[in-house]
Amino acid sequence: MPFAEIIGQERAVDALRTAVRLGGLHHAYLFAGPEGIGKGTVARLLAQAANCDRADGDACGTCPPCRKIARGVHPDVLVVERERDMARAGRWEPKGGRTPSRDIVVDQVRELVDRRLSLRRFEGRRRFVLIDPADAMNPQAQNAILKTLEEPPPDTTLVLVSSAADGLLPTVRSRCLRLPFAPLPDALLEERLAAAGRSPEAARLAVTLAGGSLGKALLLDEAAMGARREAVLEAAALPADDARPWIAFAARHGAKRERAREVCELLLIWLRDVLARAAAGEGAPLALADLEEATSAAARLGPEAALRRIESVRRALLALRHNAAGPLALERMLVGWFHG
Questions:
Q1: Comparing C-alpha atoms, which of 164, 185, 184, 182 is closest to residue 173?
Q2: Backbone dihedral angles phi then psi of residue 47, each to the nearest 5 degrees
């Protein structure tokens, strides 16, 4: 698979292709951008291009090094993932028989990265360590990899792939060359979803929810989007003077943290529509046109109240990303809505 097959990331891809062709690869990269836009794929293509038999700055996809890297069996390309995922794939066993973590832990850095990099290269022209997702590294793992990021062995490149790069330690970020990956254009996402059989209305809603991520847009089925829409309508109708419906809403939609996060993401988009209507009136364009009735009614809140609710949703999202309990995060959000 050549770099040309990566869509919507021409700037990042051109920089990497040039660096491979001229022999100027950096020792450590931070690929930063939303989920599902091709960062991990580009990281693996970079390892292929740097080791491809064709040696022209791109990956042919058919030579032995390219095929080995694609299958995950090249001895000079190490991919480090969440401990739980590596354990499931039989590529890692936690010490002491403990339950595998959802994080990338310090043992993985010491045993996989440090030990592998202490050995000589086996067959590749350049060795790669791909940490994906890098934001899954816990603080101990991040601190353990600092020296390697600063002074890796010769002919070695580390690539940290992250959809939450600002959550990494500043000392980690400062040791990497940051390469931003942009959200994909809405028109491109709609085209891909239409080709996958989505109706125009469903495609537009999926694009709005996906935030420029093709991977996320493809995972959004119409039933799931309908459920989220109902959650927004329910939230819009919550009374200010009775906490019982708030608690029921939080329990129902917060039972699963991922579900709570998805509801908050849609609430954030909807409340931005509410703010637009509150500030600019009925002529303001809406991101969620199918919720226009609820948006127009909620616009009576006024800009100040809409902004307060937006900030409450943002705080809930941040708490959920730091593993807060879903019901508690949503309850606190609603308290901020009505008593902020």
A1: 164
A2: -65, -40
- What percent of the chain has pLDDT above 70? 99
* pLDDT tier for residue 232 given thresholds of 50, 70 and 90: confident
Mean pLDDT of the chain: 90
In this structure, are residues 9 and 37 in contact, taking their beta carbons and an 8 Å threshold?
Answer: yes
Q: What range does the domain containing 241 cover?
A: 221-339
Mean pLDDT of 177-197: 89
- For the whole model, what pTM was predicted? 0.75
18 and 163 inside one domain = yes
Specify the 3-state DSSP secondary structure of 130: strand
Round to whole Å and give the CA distance between 161 and 174.
Answer: 15
Tell me which residue of 337, 312, 315 sits closest to 324, measured CA to CA: 315
Q: Give yes or no: residues 147 and 236 share one domain.
A: no
| Whole-number Å distance between alpha carbons of 14 and 33 | 17
